[in-house]
């Protein structure tokens, strides 16, 4: 930090199990990746190459080298896993992870219907090769999963070997955990938390109001995902109570009363 | 491409007559232009320097050199043409195109009222000097042009020598082809397509839902425009059925059924 | 400018007292700062490091050097002032301004309740050390300040030594001067202008429709703030009547009539 401020919430530091930030790279150039890493390497714990953007982005090898040199693990978006699976190319996918030396992999079923036992089998298999993040929730805004089902899916995926589970929101933040307006399905979130430990969940929360909701509910060290590269610094200020939205949240009432 | 996937829609390759992507540069710096070209040169067929941004962007010569070296033609937004015309400076505009060695020019009347025969005369004149893109539709969200009128304007402008016609949407995607909410005027689009060949039209579609609409209606190789630089990679994944929105669109039902 | 156009509104030039543009940097990397300066140094009069982003952005010294070399003064967002004040660290804040050789400072009370005489006392004190910008308006969209109160607050802060006063809007443009939809509280703006000279006010106007409103109401040389780095070139075209939104605003009716 560039200077000293008292009364800040205690933040976890790398390697983080909670207070974890997952950023989404949806096609940065090499120099943009360097710019991102310069600003964010302290604050970003893992980078997702969004959905199948890794298929069309040139210079994938060099991009991975930049993230590797900055100590930030990278994984392919779950949609890419689904693209290989639906084509019967799972073995190709496994080879791809090895070829690019990826230590994390996401397993999801957001764009397809998949038998859940089959999904868990893929989790078990890939967990022998990588650290698995599994995602729950559909990208289809018409498909509403009731809370008890979210919980049983998450628990089964953790049992199958997922390191953490991700709550779906897309890049836009208007499906899965959120209503089509972007509003948090807060009853769903609270019910999930009665059963699943909060450090096992990464909440996709691309919109600022969503990030603020989770930080107010669960504290500075909630795990958040799908953060755009240029929103990493702003998010860190929200976690620390240094942006208007959470400014008074971490302060004692006595401190505020002295000014009026 | 970085790896192999089966069952992808066939994409056209450069120089493209259909499957064409027009990107909008609204003031990139030189290094940002280089970043853009690094990521997008395979996927971008032409770049528009949005409206009159070329007037205030420094280093215009060097920017044009970067695009030229990447093999991507550049043209000035139609609003700049209108700015010269309304000031009686058409001859200055012609000299400007020559000075910057631009091989494409846009002719539009989105911000002004112009007699259509006069517009067609400008198309005929500029078509002797450059390849002309002409734009139909108003930037004024109160000005609704009925479908039969869109068709007759487009046909007259193609007859006057326009290489392709552009359907207006602005940078924001909320006029012309679209309602003020951004929703596609789908009846308009379908009626236009009964008369004008689809490869002669570039649909401005800056919003993701708009791109998805046109790709589902007209396939991977529809011509799209006003794409922001950082949305070029995402658009290419939508064209290829590798993003949630079009994921199942290009697949056989049998492939999907095997997973449930 | 890259070429000549007649009939443009006269723009002020640096150092500007009116026609002033304040940009918001919310965490640019060093190279992104260089890119920004390359494009915008003619058009940006001052840069705000948004709220407390300067706390978490690395390389703060080097970033300030880049802006200094480009002749663009920098100041810390008002939320940072509030963060120091609420912690009883005002003297630390004064030392911080000296340490980074900042010639401007913002004083605000957007995230806290502060006695107005106390706020004016801070303005008087900091005005001995720097040029003070003071901000009126709350970041809380529930807190509506009536027009007469805006005027008396602004006047008192100018009397206390503020160089200019800023009308609050946040990065998002949906509080203070604006309704939660982003719509301008135009009656408020007009009433303020009956009492406070327009060159003493910087209107935060991050959204394009807001910039257009102020330029149509107050001309090309209105002072605007909270402009995103990649919107500086577009804003300059709006000021000059070279974008659709203000295209006809600065032209004589006779010029337009000649085309129909």
Automatic annotation (TrEMBL), chains A, B, C:
InterPro entries: Aldolase_TIM, ComA_synth, ComA_synth_sf
Any Pfam family hit: ComA
SUPFAM superfamilies attached to this UniProt entry: (2r)-phospho-3-sulfolactate synthase ComA
Family as reported in the entry's similarity comment: Belongs to the phosphosulfolactate synthase family.
Entry protein name: Phosphosulfolactate synthase
């Amino acid at each position: 930090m560039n200077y000293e401020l008292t009364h800040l919430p205690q933040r976890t530091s790398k390697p983080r199990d909670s207070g974890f930030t997952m950023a989404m790279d949806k096609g940065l150039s090499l120099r943009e990746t360097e710019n991102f890493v310069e600003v964010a390497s302290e604050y970003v714990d893992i980078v997702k190459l969004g959905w199948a953007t890794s298929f069309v982005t040139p210079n994938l090898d060099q991009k991975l080298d930049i993230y590797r040199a900055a100590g930030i693990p990278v994984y392919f978006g779950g949609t890419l896993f689904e693209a290989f699976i639906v084509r019967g190319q799972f073995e190709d996918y496994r080879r791809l992870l090895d070829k690019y030396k990826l230590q994390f992999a996401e397993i999801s079923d957001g764009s397809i219907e998949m038998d859940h036992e089959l999904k868990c089998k893929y989790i078990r298999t890939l967990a022998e090769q990588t650290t698995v993040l599994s995602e729950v929730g559909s990208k289809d805004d018409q498909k509403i999963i009731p809370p008890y089902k979210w919980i049983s899916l998450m628990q089964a995926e953790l049992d199958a070997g997922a390191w953490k589970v991700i709550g779906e929101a897309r890049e836009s933040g208007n499906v899965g955990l959120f209503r089509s307006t972007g509003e948090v399905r807060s009853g769903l979130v609270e019910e999930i938390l009665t059963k699943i430990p909060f450090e096992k969940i990464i909440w996709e929360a691309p919109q600022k109001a969503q990030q603020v909701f989770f930080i107010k509910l669960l504290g500075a060290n909630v795990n958040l995902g799908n953060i755009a590269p240029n929103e990493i610094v702003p998010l860190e200020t929200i976690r620390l109570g240094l942006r208007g939205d959470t400014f008074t949240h971490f302060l004692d009432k006595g401190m505020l009363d002295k000014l009026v």
